[in-house]
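User: Please predict the structure of the protein below. I'd like the answer in structure-token form so I can feed it into my own downstream comparison script.

Assistant: Understood. Taking the following sequence of 90 residues as input:
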Amino acid sequence: MTRAGPQDYEQLAERCVEIASECSAPTVAEALRALAVDYLARAAKLRRANHSSRQGRHRKRGHGLAPKPSDQPNEGGDKEKAPAETGAQG
């Protein structure tokens, strides 16, 4: 089961507004509009959370530390591969 994303909530909100506009019962239409507002709030919250998590990842990348030894080329100019990457055992 996948989690609903911001676009999913926005589509649900749009559909609620459409149904509310076609609804003849005022209390039902009002409830649908309230549901649409809730869906839009959820979409906005997810967008903020996604934006915050991306910001955190960008900050972590620029930590100023030297690259890992496995990322540095060896004397032959090729990157050294860890034993797990070459298939060699222990």
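That's the full token string. Residues 1-60 form one domain.
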